[in-house]
Amino acid sequence: MNINELINIRRHLHANPELGYNEFKTTELITEYLLKYDIQITHEFCETGVVGVISKGTSDRMIGLRADIDALPMQDRSNNPWVSLYPGIAHACGHDGHTAILLGVAQELALNCEFDGTVVLIFQPAEEGLAGARRMIENGLFEMFPCSSIYALHNWPELKVGELMTRTGPIMAAGDIFEIEICGSGGHAAQPHLTQDITLAMGEIVVMLNTVTSRALHPCEPAVITITQVECGSSHNMIPSTARIIGTARMFSPKAQDMLASRIHDVVMKIAESHGAKAHVNYIRCYPATINHIRETLLSIDAGKMSGMRTAEAGYPALTSEDFSFMLEKRPGAYVWLGSGPCAPLHHPEFDFNDDAIEHGVSWFLNVVKSELA
Ligand SMILES: [Zn+2]
Ligand SMILES: [Zn+2]
């Protein structure tokens, strides 16, 4: 494996980030690379992203390895020579690194590794909030490639390079969005008795929503509700007629998801009603929880050990979310955290993928293939 070539590719991708479903140049680069090694490809499942297929031996066993390829809508302040050339777009989640790692895996599998079966290399678009994984599945990914197991990694700045962690069961949370609108008549600030004071209703809703997780769910059921945006009013002497509250809810079980969705709705409606105001709640179910399967998780930890990494089972899941969850709903598999620290946290403007993690990522995937398709 030519590690310097992979580092150069990673830095090129970092300088040329593309947002979800717009990864055209990234897709072109991946396609050219795979074709260089005579790897069969298909663009069947999405306009961007690409799937490579390598078969060896006689077994009909098939496994899938996935890398996400998209960037984030934020300014890159990583301050390296390979800083983003595009204002407002940054590879601040390290998907440039994930792409380079899977390309390294492709090269090794094509040239140097013996295995018996088929490896499907899934370069997936639009992980950041746009559910590219779901789109690929809806367009027949697993009908064309009925993988018996699937694997993915995410670089993890909280772990040092050379460490690998994962866990059986939930590893990342379901991530939902709620948008609340409150409407009243509004009026003069000095005549509140002639209005429905929706500013007051908004304040009560913000406070009450923060009690929902602690009072609606079992104390051992992890969940988070965070309000991230409030919009209301335009002047010191006017009671506004509309207010908006936006936030996110994170949890692990479908039962908790249903409970939080219905309690958020009830709290908003009852508080609005008590002020004589009207309200509307739009609760959007985005990504399900990422649930690892037992066999594939244990195999992932062993593959980490075979790669010479320090491995451990994570004590807690993360409350962040991930659309590999849609793939794990369809196929058994595992998702692991690959140590990439020290570096800035994910989604931080100064984040830059740590190139030292590339060889560990490649080695882990190769050992997964070795274990699955011996
Ligand atoms: Zn991200
Ligand atoms: Zn990510």
From TrEMBL:
InterPro entries: Amidohydrolase, Bact_exopeptidase_dim_dom, Peptidase_M20. Keywords: Hydrolase. The keyword Membrane does not apply. It holds the Pfam family Peptidase_M20. The keyword Signal does not apply. This is Amidohydrolase. It comes from Candidatus Pantoea formicae.
